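re: ur question from yesterday

yeah so i grabbed the chain u mentioned. its 177 aa long if i counted rite. heres the sequnce exactly as i have it in my notes:
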Amino acid sequence: MNWQRYSFLNNLIIGSSATLCLLLSLTRLPGMELLGIGTNWVLIWLVVWSMKRTVFQGMIAGLVMGLIQDGLTGAYPSHILSLVMVGVLTARLQKQKYIQEDFISVALIVFGMVIVAETSTSIQYILGGMRPLTDIWRDYQQLVLSSAILSSLWAPVVYYPLNSWWDKAPYKASSQK
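ran it thru and got these structure tokens back, copy pasting raw so excuse formatting
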């Protein structure tokens, strides 16, 4: 496969997978929610994307996905800060020697990043002063645990096809020499 064809297909796959995850985040399909909390598809996509990218690319992807998600769901609390943090932290994790790219590592990274993202969202609620702290804390516990479990269980559904595609990149063979 030549480079131009791969580049076009790669951009198409990246765009369509991100769009699919954004659309899935708006739906509640049977078996994809726990205690009324759904899977964080956007965060899963961002973790999978950022694992093979630089910190800057992870930050930009988090910014773009956060802006789009804010446009789809409402701007308060903003998803931008939490998704930028997830993109940056995930991209920095790739540099560590103890993180491997397999299903278990991806699930654990997603689990941790859900905690980071939901903590960021809760801090926005606290700083906004719109809800009592006791309500925020109660909802935070339920939301974080449910979302982290579901998102980490569904992460391989996004990770496996995208990772398989990126492993077949024509530029990988020449850059490994």
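noticed a couple things. The chain has a mean pLDDT of 82. also The two ends are 19 Å apart (CA to CA).
anyway ttyl
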